[in-house]
Recover the amino acids of this structure.
């Protein structure tokens, strides 16, 4: 059924259709609307049987999910930003224990300075935690990915993180096609764990593993993720058969067939990039887009294939490996058959800075002309940062960066220089 | 068949008497049908108070729940010595997740069981004092506050023993640990710090809170049984001496535990709904020195010259406990 | 694509207005995307919300920088925030006020735009009269339906009924209808004036 609803509401509906049995909620913007909606559904009995637990922290949220999942219940939680970092230890633990928990991450920047707006720093900080990480381009895909996530998680015995851009998607009203319960039930069978905490068959889970077996355990976690690269497209195909639309999968290639320049990105910014690319195509530029739908496991072969014709690759990412440059671009460069110096990193949209068509045209125009630097910060106030760097070169004093540039921003008079 | 009341005068242990008692008075451990939930073959040290406490606790809980029990375990000695991969000593469904989240994992298990209609299966979460009073405190308080149907057991050996004897917020004043070394004028762990979790648990108004020691195992078992009569969040704080960390003879575990109670340093009581309902009386009040002297962690108090001032301050703490919990009142207080 | 930017203050239902507009457009079979300006603004702070309407799926995610229409819920913003920033030359402007453009000191500035596309409506007063609370968004949206003709009053009413409990919805619908009539009347006056 077509509905015009908020992204968070769409995700809550999708999660409810998956019949979760335990939902742990701890509020953090911009994830709150999702768990609020689910809480209402549990309270009014629409979602039953289900336990909705208001926990005291994100660490507890993931820990309760761990206990619930290990005891055989389908478990769900949602978080963002600081919350994801606060639960990080349990995030790794859930993956290590092979528990098929599904979690929405409403992507948001990490402080300090505290910032509630969107970028991908939170999810990408957990890229090596062993979870499958899926990124939604729009709210329809965010909805669909949750249905797929429970399926993937339970088939693979791995937790799955569905990443959707905070505010940009979570708070956007747009048209979504809500599936029926029958469709979802046909796609997602009941959760049947391989191991479960049951007095009838007592098992010990979570023992200490020493050097004699730890490498093997980690290798098998890696091998399972690599196997997922084959399974994810086939389940996306099954999804298409049941729901009648393309959603999920490893990558989304757009006008790449003859493209000499391919822009690679994750999440909702892909829409703006596609609109820009269409305009550039009209002007005769052979340019295409590659959306990464599945960031972990990293779809090496699919990326390599999509970039086959590309003479230049521009990776536009809402994340920054401080002291290095790009995170996504490093992954892309490792999968690109051409010379790595043809892969350009563009850091954009950090902390919610708008990524506009105008800026993209300027940036991609540079790429077409061959004038794009290896590492670019889109719409950075160069004059400001250069002034600060020059001033601080003469000083040996520590202090917070944001407060240190107050006077440069001209907002207020800083008390200390 | 009638029984002659028997008094035992052994000073080290009560267990011998079990065989002479009628069945209903025997401990669960004395029963051949005990579940041996924490099986032999684990890697605990000689005289480990925690291993003893856990065995009695879990077997008693198994009996109380008709063997329908699941346990979540915090990281710590108990977890490490009981599950040296690929072996396990646990004969119950058992999960170890992290150091600080046992209570929350317990909440999750309880939620899963509730949603599946398995009201017969009960949940225990357990950990040492570090995993309870320090790193797991947030999750524990959350579990208490929501009144989740979990019995939490803290095995309190007053420090981080698994990592090599460091201070926790349950380490008593003047105790030597590797992070509270008595050097120069320092007399070990500082006075005026630390937290007393049983009182904090009671402040959450949860249905049941109790303390126990491994010196009175009948009492421990009875409290576990009592705890299982309630639904909601319950807390039992078990005093478990650590021969390694405290520097006492491994054969002295029970005696040290009894001394902690008899000096008043560790009050043994029960509370229901936030109110103390029963206190185990001190049978023969002893000066704290008798408790301190056999333990190497207090050896710096007894050098030449002895730290009379410090011993006196510890005595004051014991006396305060005695007053606060009426540990020497003539009649046992039962509500 | 038609892009609408709504300016108001936290608590006035600015974000809800954008959402309702998107639902109204959706009901007419259009694609619509409504989103707020993503702040942690509290009650009373300036707030912006956006709505895009198109006949095909909307992929664009940038803020609306060159709106086709501006809805200004709170006239006290006029001198605080550059509400007119980027407005296209033939764009629509609807201001919630009881005062005239002259009184607001905007007559000269707005003279650059098409006269029949610039209008005021006393949305707050209509809300107070019908709903009993100063929530001008329903009335303002109906005014937008009148001035721009992009969505029907019926769709606005349906979106309101979707969103609010029956009693609140009907009160808002009543405010919306009166706002619609008021703007229509206003525009007819302008048309007559221009014809004269």
């Amino acid at each position: 059924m077509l509905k015009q609803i908020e992204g968070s509401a769409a995700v809550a509906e999708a999660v409810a259709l998956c019949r979760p049995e335990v939902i742990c909620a701890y509020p953090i913007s911009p994830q709150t609307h999702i768990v609020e909606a689910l809480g209402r559904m549990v309270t009014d009995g629409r979602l039953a049987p289900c336990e909705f637990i208001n926990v005291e922290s994100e660490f507890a949220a993931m820990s309760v999910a761990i206990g619930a999942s290990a005891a055989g219940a389908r478990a769900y939680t949602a978080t963002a930003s600081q919350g994801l970092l606060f639960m990080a230890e349990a995030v790794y633990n859930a993956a290590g224990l092979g528990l098929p928990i599904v979690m929405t991450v409403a992507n948001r920047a990490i402080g300090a300075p505290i910032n509630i707006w969107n970028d991908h720093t939170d999810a990408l900080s957990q890229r090596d935690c062993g979870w499958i990480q899926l990124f939604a381009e729009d709210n329809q895909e965010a909805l669909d990915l949750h249905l797929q996530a429970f399926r993937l998680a339970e088939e693979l015995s791995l937790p799955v993180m569905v990443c959707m851009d905070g505010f940009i998607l979570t708070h956007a009203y747009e048209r979504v096609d809500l599936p029926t319960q029958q469709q979802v039930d046909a796609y997602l069978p009941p959760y049947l764990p391989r191991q479960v905490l049951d007095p009838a068959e007592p098992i010990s889970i979570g023992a200490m593993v020493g050097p004699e077996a730890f490498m093997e355990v980690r290798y098998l976690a890696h091998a399972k993720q690599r196997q997922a690269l084959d399974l994810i497209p086939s389940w996306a195909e099954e999804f298409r058969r049941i729901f009648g639309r393309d959603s999920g999968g490893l990558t989304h290639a757009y006008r790449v067939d003859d493209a000499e320049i391919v822009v690679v990105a994750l999440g909702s910014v892909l829409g703006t990039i596609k609109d820009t690319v269409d305009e550039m195509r009209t002007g005769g530029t052979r340019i295409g887009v590659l959306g990464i739908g599945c960031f972990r496991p990293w779809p090496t072969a699919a990326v390599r294939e999509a970039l086959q014709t590309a003479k230049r690759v521009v990776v536009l990412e809402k994340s920054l490996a401080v002291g290095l440059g790009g995170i996504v671009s490093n992954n892309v460069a490792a999968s690109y058959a051409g010379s790595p110096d043809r892969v350009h990193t563009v850091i954009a949209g950090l902390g919610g800075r708008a990524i506009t068509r105008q800026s993209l045209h300027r940036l991609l125009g540079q790429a077409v002309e061959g004038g794009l630097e290896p590492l670019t910060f889109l719409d950075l106030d160069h004059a400001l940062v250069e002034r600060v760097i020059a001033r601080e070169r003469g000083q040996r004093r520590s202090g917070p960066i944001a407060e240190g540039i107050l006077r440069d921003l001209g907002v207020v008079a800083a008390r200390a220089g | 068949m009638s029984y002659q009341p028997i008094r035992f005068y052994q000073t080290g242990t009560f267990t011998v008497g079990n065989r002479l008692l009628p069945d209903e008075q025997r401990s669960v451990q004395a029963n051949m049908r005990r579940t041996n939930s924490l099986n032999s073959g684990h890697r605990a040290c000689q005289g480990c108070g925690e291993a003893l406490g856990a065995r009695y606790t879990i077997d008693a809980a198994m009996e109380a729940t008709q063997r329908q029990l699941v346990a979540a375990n915090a990281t710590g000695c108990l977890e490490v010595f009981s599950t040296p991969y690929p072996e396990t000593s646990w004969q119950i469904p058992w999960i170890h997740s992290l150091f600080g989240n046992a209570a929350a994992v317990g909440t999750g298990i309880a939620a899963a069981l509730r949603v599946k209609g398995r009201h017969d299966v009960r949940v225990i979460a357990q950990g040492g004092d570090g995993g309870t009073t320090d790193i797991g405190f947030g999750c524990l308080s959350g579990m208490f506050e929501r009144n989740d149907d979990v019995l939490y057991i803290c095995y309190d050996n007053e420090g981080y023993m698994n990592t090599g004897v460091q201070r926790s917020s349950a380490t008593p004043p003047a105790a030597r640990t590797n992070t509270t070394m008595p050097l120069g004028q320092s007399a070990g762990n500082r006075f005026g710090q630390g937290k007393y979790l049983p009182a904090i648990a009671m402040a959450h108004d949860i249905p049941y809170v109790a303390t126990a020691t491994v010196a009175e195992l009948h009492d421990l078992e009875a409290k576990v049984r009592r705890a299982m009569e309630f639904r909601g969040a319950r807390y039992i704080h078990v005093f478990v001496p650590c021969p390694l960390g405290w520097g006492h003879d491994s054969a002295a575990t029970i005696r040290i535990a009894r001394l902690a109670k008899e000096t008043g340093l560790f009050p043994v009581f029960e509370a229901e709904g936030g109110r103390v309902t029963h206190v185990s009386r001190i049978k023969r009040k002893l000066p704290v020195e008798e408790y301190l002297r056999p333990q190497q962690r207090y050896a710096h108090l007894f050098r030449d010259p002895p730290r009379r001032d410090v011993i006196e301050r510890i005595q004051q703490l014991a006396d305060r406990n005695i007053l606060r919990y009426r540990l020497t009142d003539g009649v046992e207080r039962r509500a | 694509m038609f892009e609408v930017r709504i300016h108001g203050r936290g608590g006035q239902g600015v974000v809800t207005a954008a959402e309702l507009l998107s639902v109204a457009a959706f009901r007419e079979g259009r694609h619509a995307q409504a989103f707020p300006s993503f702040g942690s603004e509290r009650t009373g702070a300036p707030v912006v919300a956006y709505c895009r309407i198109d006949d095909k799926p909307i992929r664009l995610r940038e803020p609306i920088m060159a709106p086709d229409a501006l809805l200004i819920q709170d006239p006290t913003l006029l001198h605080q925030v550059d509400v007119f920033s980027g407005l296209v030359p033939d764009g629509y402007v609807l201001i919630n006020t009881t005062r005239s453009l002259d009184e607001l000191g905007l007559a000269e500035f707005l003279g650059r735009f098409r006269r029949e596309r610039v209008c005021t409506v006393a949305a707050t007063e209509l809300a107070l009269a019908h709903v009993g609370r100063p929530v001008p968004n329903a009335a303002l949206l109906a005014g937008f339906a009148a001035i721009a003709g992009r969505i029907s009053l019926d769709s606005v009413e349906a979106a309101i009924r979707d969103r609010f409990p029956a009693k609140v919805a009907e009160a808002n619908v009543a405010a919306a209808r009166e706002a619609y009539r008021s703007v229509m009347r206003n525009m007819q006056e302008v048309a007559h004036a221009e014809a004269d």
